[in-house]
Structures are given as C-alpha cells and as structure tokens.
Amino acid sequence: MTSALELRGVTRRFQVRRRTVQALDGIDLTVPEGQFLCVVGASGSGKSTLLSLVAGLDTPTEGTVLVDGRPVTGPGPDRGLVPQAGTLYPWRTVERNVAFGLELLAVNSAERARRVDWYLAETGLSEFRRSLPRQLSGGQQQRVAIARALACEPEVLLLDEPFGALDVQTKEDMQVLIRQIWLDTGTTVLMVTHDVEEAVFLGQRVVVLASDPGRIAEDITVDLPRHRDLSVKRTPGFLSLRATIEDLVRAQHRNGAVVS
C-alpha cells in the first residue's frame, strides 16, 4: 500500500529559559494512503508539535517528514489543516471562504465552482453559501473550515482537535460528518485529539504518545466496522478498546520525564 505520510526519526527540541525541552523523540510513523489515523496523548506528549511539523509550520530538529515521498519544507496544498479555533475570514461568505485556497492555486472558475458546490453539499452547507461566519453556529463554522481544507483536494487532511470547543451533541454530529466525508473522499486523515472515545470512533488506527518527551508508546489497530454510527460506542468491543487506550494514556503520562 502506498504511504501518504511518513515521519522518519523525527525529533523536536526547543530552548526554553536556558534549558532544552524535548517535545518529540525519534518518531517513526507511516500512514498509508486513505487511512484515518488518530493520535492521542496527555499534555506534554507533543501532539500539537507533531501536527505542526507535518503541516510545515515548524521544522524538525532531527529527522524528516514526507508527504507522498516528498520532504515537507513548509506549508503546501498537499496538506489541508483544520485547527480547533475557527480561522474563517469574517468578511467572506461561506462559499468565498471555501473557495479561498482554490483562488490561491489559480484553479479556473468552472472547476472552482464545481468543487465549492460539491464540498458545500458534502458538509451540509449549501443553503448557507451566502451567509457570513458570524451568522453560523460553532459547528457550522467548523464545517466551513473542513470544506475549505478539502476543496484543495490535499493528499492529507490534518485535524487539530477541531471539535474540542463544541458541545457534546454538536461534537458527535461532527464526528459522524467527518467520518462520512472520509468514506466519500478517501482522503488520508491525521487527527490529534485528547478525547480517546473520539479517536476510537473515528480512527482505523490510534497511536498513543508517551509524555516528556513525546514518543510512540503504542500503535493500535481499531478492529471495528469500517461503516460506523454512534451506536457502536455502546458495544463491548468499543468500550473495551476505549478503556485499554485510556489506561495507556494515563500510564504513559505518569511515566514521563522532562528532558533538561
């Protein structure tokens, strides 16, 4: 199977108040094309740092990040990022927010209109296409952010706890939505989250990061049906896997040690 994303010996160190803090230590990770991978870990495990490196917003101290076999040297259209905090342009309508990346890529007007229409429909936003962000709920704003990231048809979709600020009901609605979008598009997804239940529901794999420094503690295959609805969260298999991963996250957090 072709690898969409690969991290080879990725280490990241920072200088903080005259001491060295190691956020990540020797991360080796391969994500096959079309896979949905979730990364979980307690505070200090380097989840956000890892995602920033893949997005090209930061550079490894050691090691290499590759997308489709090409080294990552900065942000690029081969990766679409959806952050937790909304980053919509408040003066642009929904459809113009979704079209923003396509304008930067100089996609012709016909293709741009086709993609905007498709992703608005896919995210249930067609009737809100001429609305401004302030007229939308939090969940709708995140739908716009997802549609904007996907409209450029990236190799990898990066999700940085995008549902963390939503209420429980909206969060579950968004979980169902993003999984359906993944099934419909076949896009490779890398998601970081502190929510183990979310990771087990969404992912085909869950990588558990140990803390201080961040390193891979466990790489777990989620043995659940490819097509899932929220009822799967009540099944014995789901509950057992969730408990196992929660225990791993707690154990790795307790065992972490700060590097100075």
Average residue-wise pLDDT: 92
* Rg from alpha-carbon coordinates: 18 Å
Overall spatial form: globular
CATH fold-level name of the largest domain: Rossmann fold
In CATH's first tier, which class of the largest domain applies? Alpha Beta
- Tell me the strand order in the biggest sheet: 6-7-8-3-9-10
Total helices: the number is 7
Largest sheet: 6 strands, mixed
- Percent helix, as a range, is 25-40%
User: How many domains is the backbone divided into?
Assistant: 2
Q: What's the SSE pattern?
A: EEEHEEEHHHEHEHEEH
Give the N-terminus to C-terminus distance in angstroms.
Answer: 40 Å
- Catalogue the unreliable spans: none
CATH architecture verdict of the largest domain: 3-Layer(aba) Sandwich
Q: Overview of this structure, please?
A:
Strand 1 and strand 2 form a beta hairpin. The protein is globular and about 50 Å long. It has a six-stranded mixed beta sheet, sandwiched between helices. Helix content is 36%, strand content 26%. The protein starts with a strand and ends in a 5-residue tail after the last helix. With 260 residues, it is α/β, with parallel strands linked by helices. The chain has two domains: 12-18 and 26-78 and 156-260, Rossmann fold (3-Layer(aba) Sandwich); 84-153, no CATH class.
Features:
alpha/beta; 10 strands; four-stranded antiparallel sheet
Topology readout:
Layout: E1 3-16, E2 19-32, E3 36-40, H1 47-55, E4 62-67, E5 70-71, E6 79-82, H2 94-104, H3 109-122, H4 138-151, E7 156-160, H5 168-185, E8 188-192, H6 196-202, E9 205-210, E10 215-221, H7 236-255
Parallel strand pairs: 3-8, 3-9, 6-7, 7-8
Antiparallel strand pairs: 1-2, 1-4, 4-5, 9-10
Helix pairs in contact: 2-3, 2-4, 3-4, 6-7
